[in-house]
Design goal:
Length: about 575
């Protein structure tokens, strides 16, 4: 072997070497062709096993081992993979020419993970993923700051490592990858200061693991550039893609990118405070370009707040002038001091705005439960944020009517989004009171008599010997006393829906009702008119009008017919102008 090209180890632990032979092959035109082959060695016995592939390989650049001791080779003279089985038999799979953005670019690096997924690096720094059968599955989104790729590898945990001139990038491999980034372009930010040195950028972002935020910036004093970019941004006839392309044409030398991401060992939160110094450029106008990327389809980065600080005023101004004389040292010291400045500034800001934590409208979402605990309120974790804020806002008013029907009704309305009907027996059922010489309730020391009393009489249906009078004792208790402290709560829900929320409603009733009262909770009856029907609440289903005769319904089509069977008009009957007598 004259020159090894690549090396790998298969599942059996055998060493596989792709290399160029010392002796070239002479074709039929008597041209000397390099002879490349794959050699396998048993590393335990230190013996040669076999060599193969010479008939297919023309200009191979990479070798990788897959499952079942399969070997994959990429060749610059071939738009696909050469796949060799354990016996050295070859098959051609895949087609690089159909991959977007690859074009005529040639592959030069290859690796395979434990699942058999193949990763190939092309000349334009494009990394693509393939299935074991050579099918293209996606393009890996890489940071713009990655530089020139020099190597690629996968560890046993399936994490993908890419080395470059700017360092090493660690990626977690997925079944598929995001194929494109999303960009945000800011409007023109104006300081009003010529040659303004912009200080720093602060972002509040939700940045889960496996996501990336990259910031580009550019500043200038050129007013014509500012006007042209504003015209692009506010042009309603252009699409977002056209605006982005035109802005990039106007600003060809963005500073950056400045990348931010969260380690897999850390838990991403919705309050990632990201800070960045503007290191280069100065000018009255500033433009920002922010790239949002993800390597996990289930994770999405989001930015909720952005603040730009200017002009540059750092803690360096408090140090003696000697610390500012050397430009290189000055820049390093300024960046170093900005770490403390950022931390202290954020603390001072939180202290000066602490009142926001006591207002239901401005308190951060994660502090809503804490604020509710101050008012002895329990928030349902399943409630949306706006309902939690409204509940806390109404706390003072609810405490004023706590334990009353109005207070219970309002709490249930907030919880269910439906106003209940509360019926109190003491108000709904009134006893009959006879007022002659005093107040008597019917059933307690009260009888109905005619005057004068003519004695006891037997009716026509009474039979002597079978009718008897008995003297019974009746207590003086109020027959309505048992219902005096009971009430009914009725919700306009189906039985199924009431069953889902019954536990929460009963908890509200148990906490809010007076201790000596009892209640009944039920849904409205959807069975027509009668007991259990409430005007404005109950819906009457399958309503049918009352008919007289065969075809006439009360309310319309009423006819007065002649003959003995016809309808009869009494003295109190009234005919309207639309009534027809036939």
């Amino acid at each position: 072997m004259e020159m090894p090209v690549d090396i790998t180890i298969n599942e059996n632990g055998n060493l596989c070497i792709l290399g160029k032979m010392l002796i070239n092959v002479i074709d039929k035109n008597k041209n000397s062709i390099p002879n490349y082959q794959i050699f396998t060695y048993d590393v335990n016995n230190r013996s040669f096993i076999q060599g193969f592939g010479g008939d297919y390989l023309k200009k191979p650049v990479g070798l990788a081992a897959g499952k079942d001791n399969t070997l994959y080779v990429i060749d610059r003279m071939h738009n696909g993979f050469f796949r060799f089985n354990e016996q050295g038999e070859c098959s051609e799979i895949g087609d690089f020419s159909t991959i977007p953005d690859v074009g005529n670019m040639k592959p030069f690096l290859i690796t395979i993970d434990k699942k058999g997924s193949i990763f190939v690096v092309f000349e334009n720094e494009l990394v693509c993923q393939f299935d074991p059968d050579g099918s293209y599955t996606g393009t890996i989104t890489l940071p713009d700051s990655i530089g020139e790729i020099t190597g690629i590898a996968v560890d046993p945990k399936g994490r993908l490592y890419i080395s470059s001139t700017n360092g090493i990038v660690l990626l977690t491999t997925q079944q598929s990858f995001t194929k494109e980034k999303r960009y945000y372009y800011s409007r023109t930010l104006e300081s009003g200061i010529e040659k303004c040195q912009w200080h720093r950028l602060s972002l509040k972002a939700d940045l889960p693991p496996e996501t990336l935020v990259e910031v580009y910036y550019y500043s200038s004093d050129d007013q014509e550039l500012q006007q042209s970019i504003d015209e692009i941004l506010y042009d309603k006839l252009k699409s977002t893609q056209e605006k982005a392309r035109d802005i990039d044409n106007k600003i060809s030398k963005w500073h950056g990118p400045e990348p931010w991401n969260i380690s897999e060992k850390k838990n991403g939160s919705k309050n990632n405070n990201l800070n960045m110094l503007f290191k280069e450029g100065a000018g009255r106008y500033l433009w920002l370009k922010i790239a949002l990327s993800t390597f996990n389809e289930k994770a999405t980065p989001a930015i909720s707040q952005m603040r730009v600080f200017y002009p540059r005023i750092s803690y360096l101004r408090y140090l003696p002038a000697i610390y500012q004389e050397d430009k290189t040292s000055r820049e390093f010291l300024e960046r170093f001091l900005s770490i403390f400045e950022t931390v202290l500034y954020d603390l001072e800001t939180d202290i000066s705005q602490v009142f926001n934590y006591f207002d239901p409208d401005t308190v951060p979402q994660e502090f809503l439960t804490w604020l509710a605990s101050w008012l002895n309120l329990a928030l349902d974790e399943n409630w949306p944020e706006d309902k939690k804020r409204y509940f806390i806002q109404q706390a003072f008013a609810l405490y004023k009517i706590k334990g009353t029907p109005g207070g219970i009704k309002e709490l249930i309305r907030i919880y269910t989004d439906t106003e209940p009907l509360i019926i109190e027996y003491s108000n709904a059922i009134k006893p009959m009171v006879l007022t002659k010489k005093g107040k008597f309730k019917l059933g307690i020391n009260s009888i109905l008599l005619k005057a004068p009393v003519r004695g006891f009489r037997l009716g026509d249906d009474s039979i002597l010997g079978r009718t008897a009078l008995h003297d019974t004792w009746q207590s003086d208790e109020n027959p309505f006393l048992l219902m005096a402290h009971c009430f009914i709560v009725i919700l306009n829900f189906s039985e199924e829906k009431l069953a889902r929320i019954e536990k929460g409603v009963k908890q509200i009733l148990d906490d809010e009702k007076p201790a000596h009262t009892t209640y009944t909770l039920r849904a409205v009856q959807d069975k027509g008119l009668g007991i259990g029907t409430y005007v404005g609440i109950t819906k009457i289903s399958d309503y049918r009008p009352i008919y007289i005769g065969i075809n006439a319904a009360i309310g319309y089509n009423i006819a007065v017919m002649k003959g003995e069977q016809g309808s009869r008009l009494d003295r109190s009957s009234r005919l309207c102008e639309y009534t027809k007598i036939s």
